[in-house]
Amino acid sequence: MQNKYIQIYNEIVDEIRQGIYEAQSKLPSEHDFMVKYDTSRETIRKALNLLSQNGYIQKVQGKGSIVLDARKFDFPISGLVSFKELAGQLGDSHHTHVEKLEMISPNKDIREILKLSKDGQVWEVYRVREIDKERIILDKDYFNKNYIDNLTKEICSNSIYEYIEKELGLSISFAKKEITVVEPTEEDKQLLDLEGYHNIVVVKNYVYFDDASIFQYTESRHRPDKFRFVDFARRTHK
């Protein structure tokens, strides 16, 4: 059974995410929470401390606890995960729209990235990620046909990584990532809900198998208000 302060913490987190406690508003006082949850001040303080540690509130001397903007989704920079694997923490509802699925002869830039010959072919896949009824990510993927011979709309709307690993038996190993902030293109504006937003965050992924062969290049284009790009760093001592 969870400690009571953990239960209180989880309930307040849910209320913050649902917008019951809005960003920049002040949380109820410790005394109000003590009455609401019929518990001690120490238990409430433990719950509030955990909220502060995890970035949901900021304690301000003389003002109490101020709610921070928590309706952003943590997007791991160093991790290599699929949208499906992240989906559980990406909001109450999520859906993938497959906007394009074609076998193409790529341009010179894509050929060089994926180390293809002039007659090499790739799967070009455009997928829009809808979270809580807002279209906020555009993934533009290019997969080397030499490794992934077949793709279907069903596979693309579910998980291409799951298909590669479980059906094809290939081992995805590592990726190099680049992050930039750019002005949205007309294509971005057409496919995403960008009204009022003048920038978009682009994460370029170069993804490799265990044998260091590159099989995928992706431009993942994110609406900037919905994501925190997070990493964990440890200082090494020589």
UniProtKB/TrEMBL annotation:
The keyword Transcription regulation applies. One of its GO terms (biological process) is negative regulation of DNA-templated transcription. GO terms for molecular function: DNA binding; DNA-binding transcription factor activity. The keyword Iron-sulfur does not apply. SUPFAM superfamilies: Chorismate lyase-like (SSF64288), Winged helix' DNA-binding domain (SSF46785). Signal peptide: none annotated. Residues 2-70 form the HTH gntR-type domain. Keywords: DNA-binding, Repressor, Transcription, Transcription regulation. PANTHER family: HTH-TYPE TRANSCRIPTIONAL REGULATOR TRER (PTHR44846:SF12), MANNOSYL-D-GLYCERATE TRANSPORT/METABOLISM SYSTEM REPRESSOR MNGR-RELATED (PTHR44846). This is Trehalose operon repressor. It comes from Evansella cellulosilytica (strain ATCC 21833 / DSM 2522 / FERM P-1141 / JCM 9156 / N-4) (Bacillus cellulosilyticus).
